[in-house]
Amino acid sequence: MPAQDITAIILAAGKGTRMKSDLHKVLHPIGGKPILRHLLDTVSGLAPARTLLVVGMGRDQVAAAAPDVEIVTQAEQLGTGHAVLETRDAVGPHTGDVIVLYGDVPFIPLSVMQAMIAARHATPDTGLVVLGFRPADPGRYGRLVQDADGALERIVEYKDANAEERAIGLCNSGMMVIDGAHLYGWLDQLENDNAAGEYYLTDLVAVARQEGHGVAVVEATEDDVLGVNSRADLALAERFFQAKKRQEAMDAGVTLTDPDSVYFSHDTVLGRDVSVEPNVVFAPGVTVEDGVTIKAFSHLEGTTVRAGASVGPFARLRPGADIGAGAKIGNFVEIKKATLDAGVKVSHLSYIGDATIGADANIGAGTITCNYDGFLKFQTTIGAGAFIGSNTALVAPVNVGAGAMVGAGSVITADVPDDALAVARGRQEGREGFAKTFRERQAAKKAEQKKGN
Ligand code: UD1
Ligand code: MG
């Protein structure tokens, strides 16, 4: 089947009322990626010549998120059949296959789409292929009505079905492959004299049969056709996605101590022999190389962690953090837009932002890069092998040279040369016996006051 013969039409004009959202339903994220993009990424595996998306409200939102598809507006939602009919002018003459998908069904596998296309070409007269499934609870899905020979005769919507039809377990997923040479001619024949007063795409089955075409059914699993209509469905889809990512990670040689408490994004990359403790979140854009340990309760986003490094517990790696090989990031450390070379240690209670730190530098507990003056951000550079004492404030822009030392509690506002020592804090004074004298004097005063009362 040559790829140029496939046109994909994705329906997404429904109002999505049950989401109760200002964001278009198909743009809600699963694993940090919009529902629609999950579907589009799979569709790209079919290499369709064209992909059209039918939208109603929220056209601009969808167009911004999917600049790679052609958008067709269905101003009035008169049903799934009407939605496909609205693509007629955009599609023009086309004699290949048309695959109709739903924008809110993100996980339909490529293999299922391919099976539908293969079924369309199994016999020369097959004009239409319906994707069916057998849900545990058939609920309000359309039912696939078979004739005496077991062939698909028609689809009846739940609203229009009688008790006998409602007892059918084989349901309509809504997705179809149709012979493009006939699609719009058949759609012209649809009527809306049904319980919903809509033009049902499902009625194409009966039309195709009347015109002497064969109609085939491909069956998918309930998980394959999981649709998102509500926030609860979204949470369910997220759970599915996470379960899949966890399994993939473990299959690829990652240890997850408590898989169910680790959250992945669509693009998380973990190397071999990475170990992830409980309650870790990988927000989008994270790559972790081989042999890294991510300890409990850490949050990573837009970050690269290089081989053999150790992160956490309770670490926060924000976008632009690049953690060098064998480096150690300890508890309550936040790193943003900073490159740490191999072997750097930031072990406790620090904020490192807009910085570069050379190999093997040691950043003491409580060190802060003061990178922001309320308007602009400034850079801190720390050379290889430098030692920054605890509770240092590095007021950027500032450079600490290679091998330099900074005394604890310093506020560093000027550059420190290589191998120098900088101490920037009040000099310590001492008075022998002062504390004892002070205590005795104050105690005596207090006793005096009591007497007076
Ligand atoms: C549809 C099917 C039903 C199937 C069910 C599976 C029809 C008539 N019924 O029912 O057999 O079991 O899906 O979930 O096709 N849409 C538009 N424009 C419209 C109407 C809908 O673009 O005018 C889009 C929606 O955004 C959605 C899809 O089409 O992506 C399905 O619409 P929905 O209203 O959910 O159809 P159902 O009535 O559930
Ligand atoms: Mg629906």
Q: How would you describe the overall organization of this protein?
A:
- The protein is α/β, with parallel strands linked by helices.
- It folds into 2 domains: 3-220, Spore Coat Polysaccharide Biosynthesis Protein SpsA, Chain A, CATH 3.90.550; 246-422, 3 Solenoid (UDP N-Acetylglucosamine Acyltransferase, domain 1), CATH 2.160.10.
- The protein contains 10 helices and 35 strands.
- The strands form 6 sheets. Strands 13, 15, 16, 18, 19, 21, 22, 24, 26, 29 and 32 form an 11-stranded parallel beta sheet that branches. The chain has a 10-stranded parallel beta sheet with strand order 12-14-17-20-23-25-27-30-33-35, covered by helices on one side.
- A hairpin with a 2-residue loop joins strand 2 (29-30) and strand 3.
- The termini are far apart.
- The mean pLDDT is 97.
- The structure holds uridine-diphosphate-N-acetylglucosamine (UD1) and magnesium ion.
